[in-house]
Model the fold of this input.
Amino acid sequence: MSKINEFLNELGSLPGVDSYLLVNDGGQLVTKTKLASEELGAAMQVILLASRKIQTSLGMKRLRHLNLADDDGGRLLIFPLGRYLLGISQLKDQVEHDLSALVPELIKRFQSKAQ
Amino acid sequence: MKQIFEEIKFVPGVLGVFVLHAKKGILGSSVPVVFKPEKLLEISRQLLKIYSVTRMNLKPMQDIALYFDGSVLVLRKVSELVFLVVICEPQVNTNMLNMSVGLAGEELLSKLNIPETAQTGAPTPKTLDEVRASAPLVPSLQRIEDNLATLMGPVAELVLDEALNEWFRGGGNSVDHLPRLVTILCREISDPDKCREFQAAIKP
Done:
């Protein structure tokens, strides 16, 4: 669990990250920042299931992430991480930071540390 | 619509595009042959599910993009019921795509004659029952019903039902369209004095 905490600490410090939430493949909350809402976890599970069906329809190997932008300029990124699902809310005034590139780099770094 | 599709496909990396209506299905498409109709329908169904779950639990989304290893799928909201779906290669220029899709969305709005009020806010009621139950209309319809009953007695309910059907078939579905309903009812009332009395009584 300490590796996950280390990862989450670094995640929280990435530029543009407002809040994040980590759920397991059963939809149960593992951890979240204060600002993240718990309803997001359930919504993320439904979104992932629908995305997997699209993945199957398209015959794609891997779903890397989802990027959802709301009407107000807010952004939500969802990353499937094996048995977990990570949701990250990006600050509206810091959308220039490409979290869809920064987060996978961070994940890759921790995955290679773990090996 | 063909021209709109061609303009979006002009963006390097775009493989295909289609227009999706939440109630009517796929309105038009320009996609590679490998995307058979049943595949597009399944993709559409799942994309609408994603849009609905975010709308119900989070916020209405303007853009939903799914990044796979071999492709990117982008759903752009044009109005509450109409969406542009773009299938791209992973290396698509997202800025150029966003600009192209934004322009296409505006052109699509005018081509599909989607009124301003349908673009944002609550969805427009689709059936007469939904119209009768929609919150902004309930007080006005209740006033109309009560005053018509005073004027016409027991036949008022039947007269109102028929008038509402005619009004709804003619496109009436909001408070803005109520004057036309009143015109239909006045025709049934037939007496000009009683009609004036009725119009005065139903004013909020």
Q: What stands out?
A: DSSP finds eight helices and five strands in chain B. Chain B has two domains: 2-118, 128-201.
